[in-house]
Amino acid sequence: MSDEAASAPVKLFFREAIARALAEEMARDEHIRLFGQDIGAFGGAYKEFLGLFERFGPARVRDMPVAEASMVGVAVGAAAMGCRSLVSITYMDFLMLGLDPLVNYAAKARFKTAGQITVPVVVKATLGAKGQGVAHSQCLESWLMGVPGLRVVAPSTPADAYGLLKSALREPGPVVFLDHKRLFPIAGDVPSGEGLVPIGSAAVRRSGADVTVTAHAAMVRVALDAAEQLAAEGVSCEVIDLRTLAPLDVPTLAASAARTCALVTVEEGQVACGVGAEVAARLAETIGPLPVARVGALPAPVSSSASLERAVLPDAARVAGAVRRLLRQRGLERA
Amino acid sequence: MIYILTVPGPIEDVEEVRVLEWHGEPGRRFEIGELLVELETHKALVEVRTGQPGMLRRILSKAGDWQALGGALAVFSDGPDEALPDSADGLASIAVDFEIS
């Protein structure tokens, strides 16, 4: 392949970016094994495994029964014994069943054995609400952010899905890779070369001066929509896509918040002990006190009713409202 | 009369599609119900069929191209000799049926 061809980006659906990252890494590393429900001939719940079973065969692309604790346990065990595993949990809600092997074994093995055993496992799970009710809609990523030894990434674009998944598949320890149901219809340019996105690096999606808005996964689009609305009112938002939740890219966040002196965090999950709570606390520790507003789901389960689902989830209007209130409050304090 | 074929909709969740395959070259006449073009969404195929007879005159979005819902795919005419305008702006839409599978 010429250098020019290697550098030309190609537009792909989100699912295709995932499939391509998997195919390239599986071709590069013969130790990679995939485990999951319907990931074989069916090609995955979102078609994000399409073509892999045909290309790499049933020994490397394994369909699993509906038994998440066993699925994660098998993937973690295989990784501890020399494989590199990726296990797909179709709905993040059901990762609860697989937390024991992930948290108690995979994340701790390196510490317990003084580095003699590493567990290179990627748990891919799908976040978010999209008409599927209380047990198939949750965003529980903040639960995982405080587990020593566990990395958590949550891309918002096909390019980041591609680059972060490739990075995750080269990590020595466990990584939770979170895609989002409402991002699967999205298409975007993906680099044709290596295209690695380093774990632990946030991305400024929109530059601004008045307030720092942080978000991840599908909420990045919501934050950008809010920023666009607010720009028409003369409010300048800097929107940062966290991309990695553990470890947080505190230097990038702190540089922005130190300049804007106001922080609004946006997440689809609950705000109590949420991603935004951690972002706000880390920034207060790094740059000192600053006005903060957290936007997240209302404290209720996501309903199967479309109108109630919409009511619970954050949207651009709620984010814009939180920004306006915060800036008004800051203005009053300064006056 | 000259017509424009656009990406039909609405299709739930879909903002953009990719053209998978054209079922005919410019110059081919299509009768009602014939398969014109297949479009790809993130999870489905969209078969677009003619809802009125017409001749495919010019493909604007070839296989592999991306197009937004409502975006221009091709120019059609009733007869073979009608002169095509330089711009597709303001053209009437050709009637189509589409099926998502």
Work out the helix count of chain B. Answer: 0
User: Mean of residue pLDDT of chain A?
Assistant: 96
Please provide the count of β strands of chain B: 10
**H/E topology pattern of chain B:** EEEEEEEEEE
CATH superfamily of chain B: RNA polymerase II/Efflux pump adaptor protein, barrel-sandwich hybrid domain
Strand order of the largest sheet of chain B: 3-6-8-1-9
Largest sheet of chain B: 5 strands, mixed
**Poorly predicted residue ranges of chain A:** none
**Helical residues, percent of chain B:** under 10%
Rounded Rg of chain B: 13 Å
- Total domains of chain B: 1
Distance between the termini of chain A: 62 Å
Q: H/E element string of chain A?
A: HEHEHEHEHEEHEEEEHEEHEHEHH
Biggest interface goes to: A-B, 11 and 9 residues
The total beta strand count of chain A reads 14
Largest beta sheet of chain A, briefly?
Answer: 7 strands, mixed
Strand content of chain A: 15-25%
CATH architecture verdict of chain B: Beta Barrel
- The stretches of 5 or more residues of chain B where confidence is low (pLDDT under 50) are none
CATH superfamily of the largest domain in chain A: Thiamin diphosphate (ThDP)-binding fold, Pyr/PP domains
What does this structure look like?
The complex is a heterodimer of chains A (335) and B (101). Chain A has helices spanning 3-7, 14-28, 52-56, 68-80, 99-112, 158-168, 219-231, 250-260, 275-287, 306-312, 316-334, and strands at residues 10-13, 32-36, 61-63, 84-89, 121-127, 151-153, 175-180, 187-190, 203-206, 211-215, 237-241, 244-246, 263-266, 292-295. With 335 residues, chain A is an alpha/beta fold. Chain A has 2 domains: 3-190, Rossmann fold (3-Layer(aba) Sandwich); 203-334, Rossmann fold. Chain A has a 7-stranded mixed β-sheet, with helices on both faces. In chain A, strands 9-11-10-13-14 form a 5-stranded mixed β-sheet, sandwiched between helices. A two-stranded antiparallel sheet of chain A has the order 1-8. The N and C termini of chain A lie far apart (62 Å). Chain B starts with a strand and ends with a strand. Chain B has one domain (2-100): RNA polymerase II/Efflux pump adaptor protein, barrel-sandwich hybrid domain (OB fold (Dihydrolipoamide Acetyltransferase, E2P), Beta Barrel), CATH 2.40.50.100. Chain B is built from no helices and 10 strands. In chain B, the strands form 2 sheets. Chain B has a 5-stranded mixed β-sheet with strand order 3-6-8-1-9, with no helix packed on it. Chain B is mostly beta strands. Chains A and B meet through loops of A and loops of B.
